[in-house]
Write a structure and sequence with these properties.
Elements (H helix, E strand, L loop, with lengths): L9 H6 L11 H5 L24 E5 L5 E6 L7 E7 L13 H8 L12 H7 L8 E5 L4 E7 L4 H16 L5 H17 L3 H13 L5 H4 L4 H6 L2 H11 L5 E7 L3 H12 L23 E6 L5 E10 L7 H24 L7 E11 L3 E10 L4 H18 L3 H20 L6 H14 L6 H11 L5 H11 L6 E6 L6 H12 L26 E7 L4 E6 L4 E6 L7 E7 L13 H11 L7 H7 L10 E3 L2 E8 L4 H13 L5 H19 L2 H13 L19 H14 L2 E7 L3 H9 L30 E5 L7 E7 L6 H25 L7 E6 L7 E8 L5 H17 L4 H18 L4 H8 L5 H15 L3 H11 L6 E7 L1
Parallel strand pairs: 2-6, 7-11, 14-18, 19-23
Antiparallel strand pairs: 1-2, 3-5, 3-6, 4-5, 8-10, 8-11, 9-10, 12-13, 13-14, 15-17, 15-18, 16-17, 20-22, 20-23, 21-22
Helix pairs in contact: 3-10, 4-28, 5-11, 12-13, 12-14, 12-17, 13-17, 13-18, 14-16, 26-27, 26-28, 26-30, 26-31, 27-31, 28-30
């Protein structure tokens, strides 16, 4: 029986530091053990080795409800609440299929003390936006309700607790409300019926045939139509019980006060009626490999070769944690090998990963997922089989293991150094996960000490042994996804696997040590200007070569530095007739490397360092951004300088792009919302490729040469500005920049607001513009866009944002709540300061093609209502409050400052916008919005885009 915790992968090792590793014991078994100084006694969670985070107040009410409270001031003045119930789709009977998700929806549609339709407006008045701050999720094994509180004043906190208490035990399930919500759920089921979900369902049916998981992961429209309010109430009463629930509160709060509130509000919660037993999986012990060929025209070709074992809660021991770390490191080594093999032009694969993943607290899958180029499933399966067998038979080279170990230890050291900067959302989510898995919640310092304790025992030999043990009996499942059926079916797949197993494999070789080539940049640059913007806490520096460096020191996230480098003119300088350049650029940046190093050499050279190699394009510049640490700041600056002067455009990159582009095209075509989101600005500008991809198929013509011609002149000659925000020594940061970017040849001084080579204009051709998608026949997207203006006039720009927010609320009230005609209608205002006069207010709905005429009429009517009379003061405040809270929240987040800081010299007007935006927002009145609506939401001026099935 395999252990499981948040250490199931190296990603968890790098960023999931709040829950310690552990193995497998049931909650009931742990409860019978004597009290231990370790573990979480209040939750009856035992551990012989790990002490829980002392900053967390754990508790259990007499009715059995668990709770956890943690004071955290990142960001300050806010809090996060999570309410989890251990019930999900796997607990449903066949007749109740969909009940868990339906109950989650009904939690927002009427309870004893909150009438239907009142919950969201009540929270919006407090600054919580639906979706962003007010949400819920239903999995196959749990349901979690989520509130993000923009402030922790008494009214907001009391309201949030009252809401959660209502959801826990006071839902009413009014039959009329159930009928209204039924249509919303059916619309959501339509929207989410994509190839990935269908593939996951087929995988679970194959991997876990004795369980209902494969059937429950996709919606059953017939059952949704038939399930009654009585059925839902019965399900709710059977499973929403305090002994199956956990409440978590993390934020800028007083734990003593919060604990008293929990006891006051939740101590009297008692389940109604007879409880039902939670789902218990049958023994999972596959006797022979299971094969499946999932076929869907919209799926990538994916090969999965994995073992399957039973899942159990954590036992929180060092020994089992070490086993997980060994398997994770082994998986990372194999993934590196496969990804290196994918670089060649004739490789059948685009890359893969090896991970250990829990399957809804029912089983654990460990093994390889690898993506094939279209039509290349057979050589990809052969490659996957041989690499897994090579690892099981010959193990790993010490250099391979050491590379991964370096990254793990760095991630853990940085997590410990940055512990005080962890955000409340991640802390709260980790506590919920800990409750579900009976894991002990530890500190990053404890996690680092644990790893340092076991690190000497992590060798090539022990890692090889751990992988060989995990795969000693071969795979339990071979799951193949293809666009067309495999000739010969699963027997043919099994035959390919068997034949591949007869091919000899060879031992791995030790990799050569790689020295990073870009460390010596010559004489440091000279500073010619050094000033401070006192009210914003920004220091501006200009070098003799034209480089603009802007610094803002903060204490928001200790030990962390966010950076943004802006170069050239970005996508506005791209050719307007070559689509996809901005879309492909971030992909290119991850697979290319530099002139002196391919991506794999670069990975080895930089092992154990926290750096980023991103590159993207916005309307005004090429952008490289991310986060680093004070120790790695100089290296990060060396990488930015290399990006400007030594981008590789390597031949192996050309070969990889040839394989990636067809997959990207199919992915974009597979879902209507993907087609729309990549196309809408290009369509509204008359086909300008700088703003989007009107036809995904056109990406097939894009080449590495096109990309190089678009970005290399900007990288080599474009003006440069760099912003650093975070915890750093100013002198050390200036020295690092002077020794790298400051040494480069002179460039023009950067100015953000300039005229692009070609103007952009909103085109208002009559009649809907029809695009097509390759997804399901009952899926589609409808949008109506009214031309507005650019973003240079701050009061007008903000008024359009709030008007769009009002529009969004009205669409939700009418299309979702009243008519059940849409799951998640949206409205937004788009504007840019790059293209004079170009902007729009857009209303967007996912809907089948046959409903588009009716919904378009309703949207036009809503727009007309906004122009004919002022909105109520209440509606204005509900729309404005989340925007205001977002502005205030951004003041204490590094990433919300970096873009602005980078432009402190190149666009001083943007600084004024930051200073003035809150006052401008608060000055808006209902009459202002009516005037703006009358100006822009003119009847007959909206341009429709319809995305319909091919």
């Amino acid at each position: 029986m395999r252990n499981h915790s948040l250490f199931v992968s190296l990603i968890a090792l790098a960023v999931g530091m709040t829950v310690s590793p552990g193995s497998a014991k049931s909650q009931e078994t742990v409860a019978e053990q004597p009290a231990s100084p370790c573990g979480i006694p209040e939750w009856n969670v035992g551990s012989p080795d790990f002490e829980a985070d002392l900053a967390v107040v754990f508790g259990r009410l007499p009715n059995g409800m668990r709770y956890a409270i943690r004071r955290n001031t990142t960001p300050p003045g806010e809090a996060v609440i999570r309410f989890n119930v251990q019930v999900g789709g796997r607990d449903e009977t066949d007749a109740e299929h969909g009940a868990a998700h339906f109950v989650e929806h009904m939690a927002f549609n009427g309870s004893t003390n909150i009438p239907e339709g009142e919950l969201l407006p009540m929270l919006e008045r407090l600054g919580l936006a639906f979706g962003a701050d007010t949400n819920a999720e239903t999995s196959l094994d749990y349901t979690t309700y989520k509130l993000g509180l923009p402030n922790t004043d008494e009214e907001t906190v009391n309201t949030a607790f009252m809401v959660m208490r209502e959801m826990a035990g006071n839902l009413t399930f009014d039959p009329a409300a159930v009928e209204r919500e039924r249509g919303v759920i059916l619309r959501e089921a339509q929207d989410r019926n994509d190839a990935n979900r269908r593939r996951a369902a087929d995988y679970l049916r194959t991997a876990l045939p004795g369980t209902p998981l494969g059937e429950r992961i996709t919606a059953d429209a017939e059952r949704i139509r038939e399930i009654s309010a009585r059925d839902l109430r019965g399900f709710y009463q059977a499973y929403y019980r305090p002994d199956r629930a956990t409440l978590v509160v993390v934020g800028d709060i007083d734990p003593v006060v919060i604990e008293a509130k929990i006891e006051e509000l939740f101590a009297d919660w008692q389940g109604e009626g007879e409880p039902r037993a939670l789902y218990a999986a049958a023994d999972i012990n596959p006797s022979a490999p299971a094969f499946s060929n999932f076929v869907d025209p919209a799926t990538p070709e994916i090969v999965e070769i994995q073992t399957i074992e039973e899942w159990s809660p954590s036992d929180n021991t060092v020994a089992s944690a070490r086993d997980e770390v060994l398997r994770a490191i082994a998986g990372a080594v194999i993934a590196n090998r496969i990804n290196e093999l994918s670089r060649s032009a004739d490789s059948p694969t685009l890359g893969g990963q090896v991970t250990e993943q829990p399957l809804f607290r029912t089983a654990i899958a460990y093994g390889l997922l690898i993506v094939a180029k279209d039509g290349q499933w057979q050589p990809t399966l052969e490659l996957a089989e041989r690499e897994l067998r090579r690892a099981a038979r010959y193990g790993f080279a010490q250099s391979e293991v050491d590379e991964i170990k370096a990254g793990v230890e760095t991630a853990l050291r940085n997590a410990a150094a940055q512990a005080d900067g962890r955000d409340s959302v991640s802390l709260a989510d980790a506590l919920i996960t800990a409750s579900l898995t009976d894991a002990v919640v530890t500190t990053p310092e404890v996690d680092l000490a644990f790893y340092q304790q076991i690190a000497p025992t992590i060798t090539a030999e022990t890692t090889s042994e751990a992988f060989a043990k995990a795969f000693e009996d071969g795979p339990d499942i071979v799951h193949l996804s293809t666009k067309i059926p495999v000739e010969g079916g699963t027997q043919a797949i099994a035959a390919v696997l068997a034949a591949s197993a007869q091919v000899a494999v060879t031992p791995p070789e030790e990799a050569e040590t790689v020295a990073f080539a870009y460390t010596d940049w010559g004489e440091p640059g000279t500073i010619v200007a050094d000033e401070r913007i006192e009210d914003l806490g920004i220091r501006t520096i200009r070098f003799a070569n034209g480089l603009q460096l802007n610094l803002k020191r903060t204490g928001f996230e200790p030990g962390k530095i966010n950076f943004t480098m802006r170069v050239g003119s970005g996508s506005s300088a791209f050719p307007s007739d070559v689509p996809g350049l901005a879309l492909m650029l971030p992909i290119f940046a991850t697979i290319d490397g530099f002139e002196a190093h391919g991506p794999d050499e670069l990975r080895r050279a930089l092992a154990g360092r926290q750096i980023e190699l991103t590159l993207s394009a916005n309307n005004a510049g090429l952008v490289s951004e991310g986060a680093t640490t004070p120790d790695d700041l100089l290296l990060q600056m060396q990488l930015l300088a290399a990006r400007l002067t030594a981008t590789g455009y390597r031949e192996e990159t050309r070969g990889q792009l040839v394989g990636v582009v067809p997959l990207l095209v199919e992915n974009l075509r597979a879902a209507p919302i993907q087609v729309w989101s990549n196309a809408f600005n290009a369509v509204l500008s008359g086909g300008d490729a700088r703003l989007g991809v009107a036809d995904p198929v056109s990406l097939g013509n894009l080449s590495l040469d096109d990309l190089r011609q678009a970005i290399e002149p900007q990288l080599a000659q474009g003006s440069v500005a760099l912003g650093l925000v975070g915890d750093f020594d100013e002198d050390a940061a200036i020295e690092a920049v002077a020794a790298t970017l400051g040494t480069l040849p002179a460039r023009p001084s950067r100015v953000e607001v300039g005229k692009p080579p070609r103007a952009v204009a909103f085109t208002g051709e009559a009649g809907p513009i029809v695009l097509t998608h390759a997804g399901q026949d009952d899926q589609g997207v409808l949008s109506l866009s009214w031309p507005s203006d650019d973003g240079q006039d701050l009061p007008d720009d903000l008024a359009r944002d709030v008007l769009a927010s009002v529009f969004n609320l009205r669409m939700t009230e009418i299309l979702r709540e009243e008519l059940s005609a849409a799951y998640s209608p949206q409205a937004f205002s788009f504007s840019t300061t790059t293209y004079d006069g170009f902007g729009h207010i857009t209303a967007l709905v996912t809907t089948p093609a046959e409903d588009m005429d009716r919904i378009a009429e309703i949207i036009e009517e809503i727009a007309g209502g906004l122009t004919s009379e002022p909105v109520s003061a209440d509606l204005l405040e509900r729309a404005r409050s989340p925007i205001r809270e977002g502005f205030e929240r951004a003041e204490n987040i590094n990433s919300a400052w970096t873009g602005l800081v980078a432009m402190a010299q190149s666009d001083p007007e943007e600084l004024d916008r930051r200073r003035q935006r809150l006052d401008a927002l608060n000055a808006l009145t209902p009459q202002t919005l009516q005037r703006v609506a009358a100006q822009y939401l003119r009847a007959g001026q909206a341009r429709q885009i319809r995305v319909v099935p091919e």
